[in-house]
């Protein structure tokens, strides 16, 4: 039999509520503000909605405390992020914002190295 999921912490609930409110408020402001501010507000609403979806997925996938530790040790996820970051670096040759993807790739390399080191240090799970 499986153990019941622990209840979400108040911090997780506040995060999801805050992101949801931000998406709604920025979305409403996007329609009520003049064009130059409205478009920016709609982009912020889309960003907040995206982060709401990502946070919900992470909170469901990692049910208990220690979310950052679980994600930091995830060699599979860090490797996937590294692959995507390297592909973005390779596909943006000569572009003005390529440095952003180079920084993302460097951060992903650090994440993979950390996950590999933590996984090897603690030995096999289970």
Fold and architecture overview:
There is one protein chain. This protein is mostly helical. Helix content is 78%, strand content 0%. It is built from 5 helices and no strands. Helix 4 runs antiparallel to helix 5. The radius of gyration is 19 Å and the shape is flat.
Low-confidence stretches: none
* Structural class designation: mainly alpha
Largest sheet: none
Radius of gyration, in Å, reads 19 Å
Q: How many beta-strand runs?
A: 0
| Structural shape | flat
Q: On the 0-100 scale, what is the average pLDDT?
A: 89
Can you give the helix content as a percent range? over 70%
% residues in beta strands:
under 5%
Distance, first to last CA: 17 Å
Taken in chain order, the helices and strands follow as HHHHH
Secondary structure tally, helices = 5
List the helices and strands and how they pair.
Elements: H1 10-32, H2 35-61, H3 67-72, H4 75-91, H5 98-122
Helix pairs in contact: 1-2, 4-5
Features:
126 residues, mainly alpha, 5 helices, 0% strand, flat
In short:
The protein is mainly α. The protein has five helices and no strands. The radius of gyration is 19 Å and the shape is flat.
